[in-house]
Amino acid sequence: MAASSCARVFPPFECRSDPDFSGAPRPEKFSAKLRAAENRGACAGLSSLIFRFPPNFVRQLSTKARRKLQQHRRRPGGGRVVVEQSGRRRFRSGGGGCGRRRCLPRAAVFVFELRWECVAVHAGERLGRGIVTDAITTPVVNTSAYFFKTTAELIDFKEKRHASFEYGRYGNPTTVVAEEKISALEGAESTLLMASGMCASTALLLALVPAGGHIVTTTDCYRKTRIFIETILPKMGIKATVIDPADIGALESALDKNNVTLFFTESPTNPFLRCVDIELVSKLCHDKGTLVCIDGTFATPLNQKALALGADIVLHSATKFIGGHNDVLAGCISGSEKLITTVRNLHHILGGALNPNAAYLIIRGMKTLHLRVQQQNSTALRMAEILEAHPKVKRVYYPGLPSHPEHHIAKRQMTGFGGVVSFEVDGDLLTTAKFVDSLKIPYIAPSFGGCESIVDQPAIMSYWDLTQSERAKYGIMDNLVRFSFRS
């Protein structure tokens, strides 16, 4: 439909009311100069963010640069940024450049470091948003539809000469700001926000896996995702091969024996926090023409850059760490414009649109994401070490511990190990429930990643409808506890 293609080309407006809003296109001469500089290696190894400073110095985010981050490996401290500045300026090249002074007519290129916490605060807002306002915070646009001034303008929209969301299900300016912020953190060309994490998972699977297709997934995962894969997808003739997260041989076998469309897994997984070697599985899958989707909810975009490691799509339940305040439901997928557009087109049909007030809460939550994640990483690691040494704890599951089976993988592909720790108490179901009830600070509740500590006993919280033996098939023992530490 028309809205599907127009939502992503919504023109970026400056965020102040006083500058010139002429929106003049960048001179072709400058683009040629920039390409020439890149070919000479002066800008080699740059990350995804390119900011253009026109004469009025209003900053705008460029889509072109976001593509670069997928070619650029994750950086623990932050991303390299290219800044284009109109006008004749002398500068000394940075990064992999030769260090000689250069002078480019009409434009110059500067390279500097931008830390991820700055990206989380400013991306999509100060750096250009689709709402003309001088407000520091992004306004909430509560509307169900968008009007056209004339019938001629409507026809221009239908024939793709005019940009508009047209209808609230197809997009919202407040939601776009949140999407741009997540794209900047993930180094993605595009992001799609939806009403929940499960909405994002199901829409993605329905959009990318054809009827009669085949997917590979892992044993440890969110239960509702498993239910959808095991009960709903087979109705469309879609088969699934389930493997252990660390069993590379099983993955290779599944890829050789089947025409696999998608490898779908969490990393770290829920609730045992198993880690998949994203770089390795991406290479194996891409050699067979298989897409890779990583659910990075437990990792967050700060601890793990799945797209930079080779994945095609990264998914998050934004309800958790991204929102971070236990007050909003949302889910998102990030990746190439082509793949996200495919999912977006189906999403426009199915619904599940994010309320703009929820989008505002996501924006608000992301401004403190780096502070919260940093504290949660630190607290969870310290508590995992304490629990592992405690005589009444049988086993601890946390990728930051050397005892974790994929600790070596987590150290290589993550900069922090997350705020959730799972462990087994030395006791039975009732003993474990007594332990949970005796805790004074955490809430007994589902979910995780917020400002409040949350604890649950998965055998009761998520698997109580199954018998003890049925739970054991999924590794869910009666004494298992999952603890999400507050920020």
Can you give a write-up of this model?
- The protein is an alpha/beta fold and 487 residues long.
- It folds into three domains: 101 residues, no CATH class; 182 residues, Aspartate Aminotransferase, domain 2, CATH 3.40.640.10; 116 residues, Aspartate Aminotransferase, domain 1 (Alpha-Beta Complex).
- 35% of the residues lie in helices and 18% in strands.
- The chain is built from 18 helices and 18 strands.
- The protein has a seven-stranded mixed beta sheet, sandwiched between helices. Strands 14-15-18-17-16 form a five-stranded mixed beta sheet. Strands 2-1-3-6 form a four-stranded mixed beta sheet.
- Strand 4 and strand 5 form a beta hairpin.
- Helix 4 runs antiparallel to helix 6, helix 6 packs parallel to helix 13 and helix 7 crosses helix 12.
- The longest helix is centred in the last third of the chain and has 20 residues.
Give a topology summary.
Blueprint lengths: L1 H5 L21 H12 L9 E5 L6 E3 H7 L8 E9 L2 E4 L8 E4 L2 E9 H7 L28 H8 L14 H14 L3 E5 L2 H12 L5 E5 L4 H10 L6 E5 L4 H10 L4 E5 L11 H10 L3 E5 L4 H4 L9 E4 L14 E5 L1 H14 L5 H11 L2 H20 L4 E5 L9 H7 L6 E6 L3 H10 L4 E2 L9 E3 L1 H4 L6 H6 L6 E5 L3
Parallel strand pairs: 1-3, 8-9, 8-10, 10-11, 11-12, 16-17
Antiparallel strand pairs: 1-2, 3-6, 4-5, 7-13, 12-13, 14-15, 15-18, 17-18
Helix pairs in contact: 4-6, 6-13, 7-12
